[in-house]
Amino acid sequence: MADGVAPGASTLAQLSAGSILGSKMELLFTDVGRRDFSFTFNFIPKSEQEARVVYDIVQTFKEHMLPEYMTSMDLSSLGLGQVELGQGRILKIPDTFDIFYFFHDNENPFLNRISTCYLTSLDIDYGGEKYVTYEPIELEGQVGPPPQRTNITLAFTEIETITRERAAQGF
Asked: What are the φ/ψ torsions at residue 69 (nearest 5 degrees)?
């Protein structure tokens, strides 16, 4: 209240007394956010075949992280059968990912298990610090030079909130 009359008065009073007024702020628990995981991979293909594999890997992640428009919907459970949607704006939920850390043939118990995730971000860096390509090759009916280096960063977000019970299971 003193600060309303004379700005800084309460600070001056606290300094003079050698003590401060505590905020007595309470913390209200609302929830635990979903966990995020990111992985970075650096690809340096050494042949035309490896360059095609890198392209396929990037394309696969890109396609499976995104939704797609639905042209029809099965509403048989409601007695309506297959309903055509035409040029509607209904999107099908993207694919999910199950990620495991393995050591040889077994899941590694020393690393957190990851629950089912969505791929929420795919960052692609072609060429690193200096963009360099190989000789042009044909890909899907077009000719172009593949990059000598492709770095991708994948960011995943778990669908479920991990609870104490799930943590006891290794998540």
From this structure: -70, 140
